[in-house]
Amino acid sequence: MDHQILAGKYKSVLKKVRAVNEPMSQDSNPPLSRDPYETPLSPNPPIFQETFKVTNERLQAVHFCPQGWLSNEKINLLNNVITLREKEISFCEEEEDYSEIHMENLTRYQ
Question: For 33-51, what is each residue's pLDDT tens digit?
Fold first, then answer.
């Protein structure tokens, strides 16, 4: 019987990196396109109308909650938020935008 040694590649301690729990700089937060306090969400959101990206089929796939758990007004509010923020939401991998990838703050293991 042929014996094999199964060992992982050795990584020296100097090359190891570990994530550090520290606050992120405020420069990494994207600026808001509007002031949320000046333009709050409407207490009476409009009834959902399909857009090019947000359709009834896609909203059915989101599954907000069990059937009948939220009132129709609350579901309309969620639909309104999704419609307002449709540029930031991806429903499939083809729609994902990796242009702005935020890297974790890493420090060398000591």
Answer: 777 777 777 778 888 888 8
